[in-house]
Amino acid sequence: MQSPGVVDAGALVVRIAVFPVKSVAGARVEAADVGPQGLAGDRGFVLTAGGEPLRAKTTPLLHALELSGPPSAPVVSAPGGAPGDLAAVARFLGVHAPLELRPAPGGARQVAAVHVVTTTDRDAPGAGDSSRANLVLRPTAAALPPAAELAGALLEVGPVLLRLGEPPRHCAGSFAEVLAPGTVRTGDAARLRARADGAAGLPG
Length: 204
Fold this sequence. Notes:
Layout: E1 6-18, E2 27-29, E3 31-35, E4 38-39, E5 45-49, E6 52-53, E7 66-68, E8 75-77, H1 86-93, E9 99-103, E10 114-118, H2 119-122, E11 135-139, E12 154-157, E13 160-164, E14 174-180, E15 182-185, E16 189-193
Parallel strand pairs: 10-11
Antiparallel strand pairs: 1-2, 1-11, 1-16, 3-4, 3-15, 5-6, 5-9, 7-8, 10-14, 12-13, 12-16, 13-14
């Protein structure tokens, strides 16, 4: 039976990913605590060269680095290299300054706490790369509307409540802020929350 205040359009969580080091490969997890700043362990560290943070925009090979260790103490390495060998990482990246892996106070997110994408939006023609989404949802028979129609919508994902924002410019899905924290698990249901007037999760 459908819960009060929830519309018959939703999905299941089929993938949860955290990216402990900004712009570096992520890790798939079965469950994650979600707070106001996003998923625990997500983008909590940053690689710096000579004290300056590295970004994928200027150092695209960051995406090819390998990640190991827990999100709270990540270890990066060059492909096939020894874990934690930052000198080898620098050579792989073509960086000529000492590298450090530093905690990023408050996280290294630049846009929003959580990136959500449905498999429908992800697989649509021209969707762009959404491989760095935190939550991947597989729509049920009564599918969620496209992300372009959901700006401002409220989405329950397990016990977590998200407010969806505008779609990212260069990839599929929606950025979201966290309104109610909790633990999200693979297999959790995701539902749009209905307003008193019956609209699909659009706050007044």
